[in-house]
Fold this protein.
Amino acid sequence: MFGRRRNGPGSPGAQVIPMAGLAKAGGLRRPPAGPVTARPTPLDRPPEAPSGPVEAAPSTPKAPSTAGPNGSAPPAMAAPAPANPPAPDSAPVRGPSEGRAESPSAPRRSPGEAGNDESAGRGEGRSGFGRRRDDEVAKEAAASADSGRAGKGADRGKPDRLAKPAETAGMMAVNQGTIVEAKRTVQPMLMDLMDVGEASKMPRTELAQQINDILGEVLAQQKLQLNMFEQRDLVTLLINDMLGLGPIEPLLHDDSISEVMVNGPDQVYIEREGRLIATDIRFQDNHHVMNVATRIVTAIGRRVDESSPICDARLADGSRVNVIVPPLAIDGPTITIRKFKKDKLTFDDLITFGAMSPGCAKLLQVISTCRCNILISGGTGSGKTTLLNCLTHFIDAGERVITCEDAAELQLQQPHVVRLETRPANLEGAGQVTMRDLVRNCLRMRPERIIVGEVRGPEAFDLLQAMNTGHDGSMGTVHANNPREAITRLENMIAMGGFNMPSKAVREQIAAALHVIVQTQRLRDDSRKITHVTEVLGMEGEVVTMQDLYLFDHTGEDRQGRVIGRHYSTGLHPSFADKARYFGLERELHEALFEDG
């Protein structure tokens, strides 16, 4: 994937040299930023005449000549003479092939080991971790052996280096500012050296290894000094920019984070355990944020730009994404990601979190199993989608379920599920598919249950019609503060569709279609509770009548500011008891109603 191009003798065009042969070919192709002067290393110095007789070292076979046509060395291998040559009476530092006299007691190293030392000396001398004399290495090895702990060098081809943990921690401190500056410098060079198409097909670990191997030489050319931990973090940043979502990629792998909010390049917030926390993550500029937003939306065939500045999308794991960009977003592109846990939540988890009581959970299980039509109501971030996912666990595996969403985020576990998603208009303003189009099309797909991720417009009328025409067990969510307001919201959304129907007729259709409204709420301590399980009874005059089956009673708060309360059953007999009896769940319904009474 990586390599440099050269014109070999007799070759009709440029020849790409693979990365494995970079050392043989004379190093990396120089980046277009300008000529870089090679730093002199001990291995580049010419041998000096010893002051006394020195035993000649055994001759080694010479490498193939890489001289130019006139006998001169190629430019990639040329190096200037050392500025300060050693004094005649001092012992010069020579490489393993420069005729250095070896101690009789020292074991003779093989040519392969000498080659490893040579390559390590070149790379380490430029990163601030050069080779040391044998006596220094021996002293450090003895001290490490006494303490019983030894650290091993991590660079490939580098001699084993023994170091104490405290010393390693001090020397290998990570400077995030240095890493960011190094990334800005080397990323254009790496992009020039790599084949982006091939890189996108490679596994992440393999690509990281290749980038790490070539990064050392790029850093040396640019005279950037990074320790091994900083270089590792630099490789991670480069991979995240190439294959992931840039600086926010690590946040997506943190299961404790439920939401990520990017407010322009200089402000990133997260939500952890219901609380907003500012992070020190920064983007380079607005263009960097825009690149990440574009990568998200194009993955599902959508676009976001000045002509279409608002877009709803999703990640591969189903996390919901909203993007809004300038000119609507004044302070720069804004990205909001609602994450979902990798481990799907169940009713047992919600009971553990205190979102519901065991009796309330058993009642909702009966309601879902006996195919009651359910509307989940709540505010933003109150847990509506989470509860909807939990309720779908009790759908029979033999039922055909069709979901309609603006951005597919429901995670149903049943085998027979058809997922539908809306589509915005294209550049010509054509091709838009609305939620109402999807719901109407569902009626022709032989559904047994229809699930609408969020009812927010005229599709409410089509969903109510589906519920009234034999598609029992259908579900949906709506934004409202209590069950009574949820009814009013449905009326308003139907009116938005331009239906000229009397208010009483609309309410009669709502009362006939819905069986249960479940209200979720986010409390002031950022906990999420089910506050109402309300049954829709019917009509009395022009008013929709309802009764509460389960309620949450707020009794106070503890010293940490957490809300204290309990769920309790009102003891009222539901009108859908006949449906529960039909499905053989009459006993479970009775236990649920009186378990928390």
Q: What stands out?
A: Residues 176-193 form the longest helix (18 residues). Confidence is low (pLDDT under 50) at residues 4-134, 147-173. The two ends are 68 Å apart (CA to CA).
